[in-house]
Specification:
Blueprint lengths: L3 H17 L5 E9 L7 E10 L5 E7 L3 E12 L2 E6 L4 E3 L4 E4 L5 E7 L8 E8 L3 E10 L12
Parallel strand pairs: 1-10
Antiparallel strand pairs: 1-2, 2-7, 2-8, 3-6, 3-9, 4-5, 4-8, 9-10
Length: 154
Amino acid sequence: MRTLLPGLLAGTLALAAAAHAQPSDITVSLAWTRAVGATAPTAVGYLTLRNRGANPDRLISAETPAARAVEIHEQRREEGVMRMRPLPDGVPVPPGETVTLGPGGTHLMLVGPTRALARGERVPLTLHFERAGQVHVELSVEAAGTRQPAHAGH
């Protein structure tokens, strides 16, 4: 009994951990940025978020070692002028919906890149969600001036 009890306890703990370990309801695709030089004040990150769950979620922040800070911004035309402003409350991701952070709209502003970002590189990015927690992705670095990533049709 003494040898059986530790094994049963370990098995029970493993099953309990497996029951609570669920894959994130948030999936990320088409994560990319544009190449910038070493002295660029900013770079921009784009991606597509999909909430496969039954509950709403919210992208609340992001971080990367490739920039001093990452801010969530919105670009919008107001009175005929394009304006950019931070979204301190983040980006809602409703259940069953897809939200695109793309050129000309909501995006991630990589403030103070710590180095040049060269075409073909991959930049690590950690996204923080209200419900899903941390989601790790990589931004593919596309050519400067690109309007959509090369892999957008895949």
